[in-house]
Amino acid sequence: MTTRLIVLAAGKGTRMKSAMPKVLHRLAGKPLLGHVLDTGLQLNPASITVVIGHGADQVQSTIEQPVKWALQSEQLGTGHAVREGLDGIEDSDTVLITYGDVPLTRASTYQALLDACDEQTIGLLTLMMDDPTGYGRILREGGAIVGVVEQKDATPDQLGITEVNAGVVAIKGGSLRDLLSRIDNNNAQGEFYLTDIHELAVKDGLRVQAVHPQDEWEVDGVNSRVQLARLERLHQQHLAEELMNNGVTVADPARIDIRGTLKTGTDVTIDVNCVFEGDCVIGNNVKIGQNCLISGSVIADGSTILANCVLENAEVGSDATVGPFARLRPGTRTESGIRIGNFVETKNTHVGEGSKINHLSYVGDSTLGRNVNVGAGTITCNYDGVNKHQTIIGDNAFIGSNSALVAPVTISEGATVGAGSTITRNVPADRLSLTRARQTDIENWSRPIKNK
Ligand code: UD1
Ligand code: CA
Fold it and tell me: Which ligand gives the minimal distance to the CA of 223?
């Protein structure tokens, strides 16, 4: 069986009040359409066609998943949109049609629809809703589905129906092409409704089989920023619960945001207001303090990230302490037992086992050996205005406070750099090197006095 997907994403999303097409608005850091595509890809379809219209260029340049694009230059309705996406679809293919603004439908729900579909049967996602306002209503006779009526076309009696059309359909390519050629736009909105295919199909002797989602939120669409924010919180709540079920203490599941993937060990503790982006991996017994942004980073077992840290593409070794207020920029890699303290920025730097950069320093393009101590206010001067240069600091070296290490430069093992030095040449091992002027104490000097 060949499965193909058609995803509708040509609408403007007027109620978003945005210059950006609705399907590019982000949920958990990923465009709404990206969610649909990632779930669709789990079905291993032969192709995914995305029908675009409003902001087509923007959609094409933002979406990274491998899809075929179809242009619907005028938005004449969902039925018309699917017709624009039929290119390359064979009669025998099973076609799954989804909407780009309904991001959280499970792959298992899509699969159940595909399983329900055969030559005689259309699979249609429906569910009972306490408040069905806005959705198409499912019409049944003697228990069997005989059609779908849109809210705006429904009679008062039909408006009382609580079984709604979630919008996802599985149908054979041949039936789809045939039925779509026969729908019209004689309705309240003057649109070609995809939903009109069902009545025609039943008249042709086909069957429409209802499939239900496991959870109601799977069919929640996004039409406004308020709905988007609600769905975001709901989704984050589920992600937080998943973490907790995997052995993570989440201080407040309402104050965590996962905008990517987060793999965790056991007995991890995450305090409030932490945001995780990209792919992050956190080992056992890691503690993360308040207000941290962890992006594309790995934190090994037993480490503590104190409050207000920003980690971006960093790797923190085991039993390390970082922060509060530390910024680990891309390419920061540390071994175990290190300490990076407050107001320290690191970039493209390897920090050896047990080394400490405790306060107010910038360390970039550097390699630190073991048990190095970098004093407060140390700057690696890695940039000459054109090129970046390396600073190498050997094991057990001690850099006195407020030193400038002008790269390229090597501080050898066991060296001590006196506080306030500007180091422009390599420092030999096991010496005290300093460049500051000697202190002078001037006798018989008196402070100026104000004349009254
Ligand atoms: C649609 C269904 C309705 C269902 C609801 C579920 C139809 C006629 N109605 O209504 O029965 O209950 O979804 O959420 O299908 N689109 C295009 N081109 C168009 C029109 C729409 O690509 O010409 C896309 C939109 O971008 C959107 C999707 O199709 O992603 C659904 O369109 P929308 O206008 O939101 O349909 P609803 O009124 O929500
Ligand atoms: Ca909609």
Answer: 2
